[in-house]
Amino acid sequence: MNQVWHREAVGGLWEEMGRLQFDFVANQGLKPDHKLLDIGCGSMRGGVHFVSYLENGNYYGVDCNKALLDAGRNELETQGLLWKDPILEEISDFAFVRLGAKFDFLLAQSVFTHLDLNSIMRCLVNVTKVMNPLGRFDATFFLNHAGSTYLDPIPHPTRDGRRIVSDLRPGPLPLRSGSLGVDRQPGRPECSLHRRLESSA
Question: What residue numbers bound the domain in which 19 lies?
């Protein structure tokens, strides 16, 4: 098996996207003593940067794919970061309460772009259960250029010419929305929207 298969499995652009993820959250105010939940952390493309920056035990990464998590653990070992005690857990139902922690920052990078609307809402509801009162949640998703009354899945081209379908459509959110920032990901024609959400508690 290709020794770096896990880097392509999460979309490639390993260094560029990993640094982009870290820089974005750091610019939102992430500090070393904050606890971060990385939802859909995969093989640690962004995780290696967060683990390096955060204090011991403050990084939590969850993913539904055990093979990617194992590859991510190997990335951390290769970079000499396991001593920082990152928590990596296989979770497929968004039951973040099982982690037994509350978080200052939560991130879902390239997660909602692969989920149906019900799964997205399940994630959002569970996010509210583990977010500190002043916590922040950042997620990327595809913009719906067809308008708020468009109810069909939204197709988007990928870097390799394939098309993927996003099912995110308008609906009530269990979180209060904050500022919006638009960021073009390198090598991808579509626009991802980073939406900061603050706990409604």
Answer: 5-198
Burial (CB count within 10 angstroms: exposed 0-12, middle 13-18, buried 19+), residue 84: middle
CA–CA gap between residue 79 and residue 94 (Å, rounded): 28
Between 165 and 80, residue with greater pLDDT: 80
* Prediction pTM value: 0.77
Rounded Cα gap, residues 49 and 38, in angstroms: 12
Q: How many domains does the chain have?
A: 1
Q: What are phi and psi of 64, to 5 degrees?
A: -90, -5
Q: How far apart are CA 150 and CA 170, in angstroms?
A: 9
Residues 6 or more apart from 78 whose CB is under 8 A from it? none
Specify the DSSP element, H or E, that contains 22: helix 14-27
- Segment 8-31 mean pLDDT: 78
State residue 85's pLDDT score: 96
User: What pLDDT does 95 receive?
Assistant: 95
CATH number at residue 147: 3.40.50.150
**For the residues 23-40, what does the mean pLDDT come to?**
94
Terminal CA-to-CA distance of the chain, rounded, Å? 47
